[in-house]
Amino acid sequence: QVQLEESGGGSVQAGDSLRLSCTHSRWFFTTYPMAWFRQAPGKEREFVAGIRWKSTDYADSVKGRFTISRDNAQNAMYLQMNSLRPEDTAAYYCAATSRNRYSIPASVTDYEHWGQGTQVTVSS
Fold it and tell me: What is the rounded distance in angstroms from the CA atom of residue 76 to the CA atom of residue 49?
């Protein structure tokens, strides 16, 4: 079983930045997608950003503010979040798939490995 662990969440004010980290217990091929999702109370878990090889994809709500990156040699994935807004408040989860893909899936059901989540709270 693949183990994922997020860190870096916290409580910040609007306009601040946070950097989330996700470490995983095994090496993944860079062609296997990884992604960040978030879930606010009472809301469905939604796609935030994904990465496969050198390709990235972002939800419209975070484009220009968030940057996803990956260091496969360190078994780590990151999400740099700038210009945070109150609507970014959610539990953030990292996700991975051990299945080969040629695109970056944006559905929860496309990923079988999940971290425990890290809370991000943005106040105004």
Answer: 15
Predicted confidence (pLDDT) at residue 20 exceeds the cutoff of 90: yes
Distances (CA, A) of 91 to 44, 71, 98: 11, 23, 23
**Residue 77 pLDDT more than 90?**
yes
Residue range 67-83: mean pLDDT, rounded: 95
Contact 8, 117 (CB under 8 A): no
In this structure, the number of other CB atoms found within 10 A of the CB of residue 114 comes to: 16
Q: Can you tell me the distance from the alpha carbon of 116 to that of 95, in angstroms, rounded to the nearest whole number?
A: 10
